[in-house]
Amino acid sequence: MSGTSYAPQPGAAPLGRMLRAQTGLETRMLLRNGEQLLLTVVIPSVLLVLFSAVDIVTTTGPGARVDFLAPGLLALAVLSTAFTGQAIATGFERRYGVLKRLGASPLPRWALMTAKTGSVLVTEVLQVALLSAIALLLGWHPHGDPAAVLLLLLLGTAAFSGLGLLMAGTLRAEATLAAANLVFILLLLAGGVIVPLTKFPAAVRPVLEALPISALSDGLRAVLQQGSAMPWGDVGILAAWAVVALAAAARFFRWE
Questions:
Q1: At what angle are helices 109-137 and 64-78 packed, to 10 degrees?
Q2: pLDDT at position 7, please?
Q3: Measured between alpha carbons, how far is 63 from 67 in angstroms, rounded to an integer?
Q4: Which residue of 59, 95, 106, 124 has the fewest C-beta atoms within 10 A of its own C-beta?
């Protein structure tokens, strides 16, 4: 009996193709979710326009208020996508067994997490482009080295992604939903995004300055508003958060 040949030949697709396909799927799912769009696009944009017209910070000169707010809102966009949105979406995928089924597919689990991170980065590119366009229309005058901005955004994404995956992989979905939204609100108010940290009591300021959202917003503000070189202190804080959060997520994440 002659052997039987099959066309196309059965088997897993190349890893690169699987990774691109999963990244595209994760991105489309994120962009089609109305609640996610509200969190990642609408809220930062509305806050940028609203507080640019409200005297909440003491500034001088034309466009000075938006010069302060724009870097903070860019940091908030990273927080909303890499942490809040990813934690909630991943938490419910875990609850409904989606992650368990994907984990049994030919796609390695590390590649699935990489695809999720890739979809976060794609969304952040769109967020940064939109917020920058709005800020420029409001009179924003950015300065500084684009490489420093890129490094801060990447480290912030890594830190918040690790924290979001850690929360989604250890808590129940409902608890993740509540906790992620609560953390988002608290960091929005106390992370130097729209309210300068100098307005907080001196006793709590060192703690607030050590938060990843504070380091990201302060670092972006130092570069984009003040034209500073690489803010190594903020880079160090973000790098430490990224290493610890990603390591903890890899260690404690439960797939079911």
A1: 160
A2: 61
A3: 6
A4: 106
CA distance 210 to 208: 5
- Round to the nearest angstrom and report the end-to-end CA distance of the chain: 46
Name residue, tokens 């804080």.
237
95-130 CB burial, b ≥16 within 10 A, e <16: eeeebeebeeeebeeebbbebbbbbbbbbbeebbee
Residues 33-52: tens digit of each pLDDT: 777 777 788 889 999 998 88
Residue type, 21: A
pLDDT of residue 78: 96
Q: What average pLDDT score do residues 207-217 get?
A: 96
Cα(35)–Cα(20) distance, rounded to whole angstroms?
Answer: 25
**If we measure between CA atoms, which residue out of 77, 69, 40 comes closest to residue 193?**
69
CA 90 to chain centre: 14
Confidence (pTM): 0.89
Q: What is the DSSP string of 72-134?
A: HHHHHHHIIIIIIIHHHHHHHHHHTTHHHHHHTSSS-HHHHHHHHHHHHHHHHHHHHHHHHHH
Question: How many CB atoms within 10 Å of residue 249?
Answer: 20
Tell me the torsion sign for CA atoms 143, 38, 212, 122: negative
Model confidence pLDDT, tens digit, residues 143-189: 889 999 999 999 999 999 999 999 999 999 999 999 999 999 999 99
Which bin fits 6, alpha (ψ -120 to 50), beta or left (φ > 0)? beta
